[in-house]
Amino acid sequence: MNNIRGLLLLLGLLTMLTGCERFSDDLEDDGYNAVGHALYQQQCASCHGIDGNGTSIGPTLVGCATCSSFLVLADEINRTMPVGDVEACTDSCARDTAEYILYAFNGKSLADAKVTIEGVATDELAVTLRKASLQLAGRMPTSAEIAAVEAEGEVALSAALDTLMQEDTFYDVLMETFNQQLLTDKYLTRNLNEGGINLLDTDDFPGRKWYNDQYSGDDQGSIRGCLRAVTNDAVAREPLELVSYAARNELPHTLFMTADFMMVNWYSQQVYEAELLDRSVSFRQLDEPVCDANGVQVYYDPTDFRPARVTKDLEHELGGFPHAGILTSPMFLNRFPTTDTNRNRHRARKVFDFFLDTDILAIEGERPGDGIGNGSDNPTLLDPACYSCHQIMDPVSSAFQHWTDRGQYITTGRSSANRWDGSDIEPPGLGGESTPLSGSGGYFRNLLQWLGQKIAQDPRFVRATVRTLYTGLVGQPPLIAPGEGAAEADILAFNSQRAILNDVGDVMVAGGWDVKEAVKAIILSPYYRARAVDSETLVANSHIGSSQFISPERLHNKLVATLGFGWDDFRWEDNRIMFGGMDSDSIIERITDPGGLIVAIQSRMASEMACRATAYDFLSPATERRLFPNVETITEPDTPANIARIRENIRHLHWVLLGERIAADDPEVDATYNLFVSVMNQGQEMLDNPDAYSPSPSTYLEWECRARWERQEDGRTGDGLPSQDRIEQDSKYTLRAWIAVMTYLLSDFRFIFE
Amino acid sequence: MKRRNFLQLLAATGLTAQMPVWAPRAEAAAPQNFLVVVNASGGWDPTSICDPKGLNAAYTDRSDRFGGSTNSVDLDANKAFGPIRWSAIPEGVSNDEAVRQRINDQFDQFFNTYGNRMTVINGINTGTNNHDTGNRFVWSGQDEMGYPSLAACFAAATAPTLPLAYISNGGYDFTDSLVARARASSASFVTEVADPNRYYDDIGFLYRSANRSADLHDDVRQAQAARIARQLNNEALPQRRAQLERLLAIRSETSNLGQLNVQLEGITANVLRDDNWNAGRANSLKGQAEVVVASMAAGLTASANLNIGGFDTHGNHDANAYPQLGDMLEGVHFLMAALEYAGIANRTTVVLGSDFGRTPYYNSGNGKDHWPVTSMIVLHPGSTGGRVFGASTSAFLAQSLNTSTGVADASGQQMTPAHVNRALRDLLGMGSASLAGEYPLPENPFRIFT
Fold first, then answer.
1. N or C, fewer C-beta in 10 Å, chain B?
2. Stated pTM of the model
């Protein structure tokens, strides 16, 4: 990341947050356009609302994606509006209408947005950095990063975010974010054995289970099993790896729609027999084998994904298939399948939702009351109640015509095995534009490549991408357009957010369609950084802030980052799902509102992890400890200096575990200190009078709490430690007092709500 | 939509901030009544179960399969319990006669066993062929987004802060934050977390004596309670404050999660899956039922969604739909047996439904596509003598119904999921709850249950 470019983008965002007027530069006339007003009322208001705030059948025009400039908006209207008759408003009509929309709904509304954002106070930059570090990179910020942010402010924060977004964990987070929408992780081995591979047609890809062919011996089951899992996960992750690839290489995210390749690693390359775009390099090999069993070692790095094309002959097609980003991904096509009667409409609906930020179902205002229609033979073409929606959706459905229900590529035709009938459905296209089919510029064989290019150029793709990222980062989707009669406060809240998210999109596009720019802009926005809201200034405020119940995967990352290892109970998917997780199959939505069971799970986790992590942390030298850099195992509050050290360590724990920056005399330090002292005093009293208690108290820690093993990242115990290194005794009860403190902090609200 | 639950009331009155942190934990009252909804995911075919049409040749212009009939098998006068009728099993289900016999027995046993406590609601017009809309409409009474599911409303109205107040295994389970939704698939994990400080036997990670006269974990709990009260008082971000309020209410109650496993052990030992009725059938639904009933019997749960998929039968309808329907009925029977064992069957209402219906004719792939007319089945704690309310036409279209009798009546009106949900709310005693006013449904003139 170029720091200068990043700074300029950051400054642009901050300018935006102050509500700077952005539209006057290229408006032909700043004033009210009466002709445009009349045209708007005649042709636009029924869908977009008199006040431009949208209706159930038309999106809001306040801060709309194409409202960034007069020329862009006029061109958009000229080409695509009104939806039902794109010839009805061209040239001067489009210009007048665009001028009115910018004047009436954007200049005014964005001025209002400035006021609404003023009611938000944001976190300190270091707090934002900690939160972003944990979320994006699964680690705590380094001391140097914090010091730089405190000394240099936003520029250093921007640079630190750039660093975080170059780390491997960020790309995993990015893929998880997109998976919440695509749900293709359903096919990972942990959910379905060979879940991805089995979706591939065996005639197209006869080597799809190459590991069975290469290692067919009865005594080679273990190596087969390992390679099967690694290969399947590579196949399953192929669409998400495309997102990661673009971000990692600072390539435009529009590749998601337009890439004329797919992503393979060494394992899935065997499956697809795909041709690497760059044939001059080999797949990376690791020092340690990935699969090592039955005397076979395989070293290829499963994270080394590269662009490749399927160019080999398929069962029905010569020369492979034309790739179009995720649109031609076998995983995407299977995750959103079709049927003979559905005619790819499910796929089209998802395309509109995921990539064009358009809910097709919201255009069902004219739907017949009985859902059956007027009985015509072909209602989607002939029944007005049906075609108002289908004329928008079905061209996209038709664009998928060469792809079967199982994602196999078979071009349609009279003698084709593909039974698609184009006579009763709109031809391929998008937004009123038909796909050119024939001639040298025709797209008949590669309809989805045409569609992908059109989507990539569509301003709604910017909005859809920002929506996906915002939802993943902030923990809730952007506000939906308030309906007619909505409160003024709700309208202002929506307008403010729409304006800011549009600028996030602008920043991303200006940065070369780099999703990292959008991630950074969202993190810098008040929605992510909000610490407090003045409810009198900002009446509609429940959407302000990014406090969210973290997923089991994020909790695992946080435990590893703060304690050094995770909770072994989270190795099991059932347990993760009970903590609100998802499997992308039957459970496709995370729980965001924890109930009693989840609170109980957290309490249990807190007890176990406090027990295991406390003495363990003292194994390291003080300067390398994550949790206890200021005290030793036997530090008692017996001198002012020791009291100060204990209190300082408590401050450190509040920061590391909860993200709280509190002063030495803060009441929270007092409360935690009192807990420490109370438990220590009671423990010492019990040790002094062991016979008064049953079972008798011991100077030894409970077995589970002793530092006598290495801890693996997944929470299981590793190798035993040499006896001289172990920490097993606690004669002053100080370690157990710290365990109590750790239990208290790990079970805190702020540990599971970040 | 704003949240309107108990917690909001506390927050609005400021009670949460004033709640003394040393106050003994409130014992959440165990629910007196329970609700289980069973969702046939994908859109079932009512004519293949409780609204059969037989070989009616009603769609010769649209299908050449089975003479354009709605079903591939004729009506069977023996498939009846009072006014309730159910479908015979067509030969196209399987070449294996034993399979057909098994499904036939599942159907017959279900309706004959539970017909006396059953209300079948036929001829419901969902007005949609879309899965999401249909699912939402059938289970909330509102086709637009924003209404909580019937089961969420019930839990919120009866026991919103129980640790597992509303268990969902899928289907429409939107809560609008009225009540927390829980996944509860592993009883052993629930048991493990029931006591946060239990290391082994009665030994704690933090010391506790056998008689609990010394319990260091109590210090942690007290510190937590004081801390959350301070957090609430100091929190300046409304979003976070709302989260804290909900957390406080949950922590203010005794969870008693350990009872779940006690109940589960009793159920699994005494209500055997393979004895009710077929070995190895409907195990997913039976497994869901075991945990849900155990949790209800333990006083932890008020309502639950059970979910079974496989009903989106665009191809080979008979071979796919009938086995699933049979297994669904077997799973519900198992649920009823477990409820009986747990002693709460007489306090539990069970509702079966699906996204919408399927076409009253077969497509070229012998499948059935989406159709807006559907049915629901309700099992009551009390006796109905076998009741049917509502009717579709002989061609499986929705029609105007007499609001009192449910029979076809040109001067009546069509029945929608909004009416059915309104009637269910009344049946479940939620009709006058403030929640019902917050999520209003149109007046229901249909006397479905009375």
1. C
2. 0.81
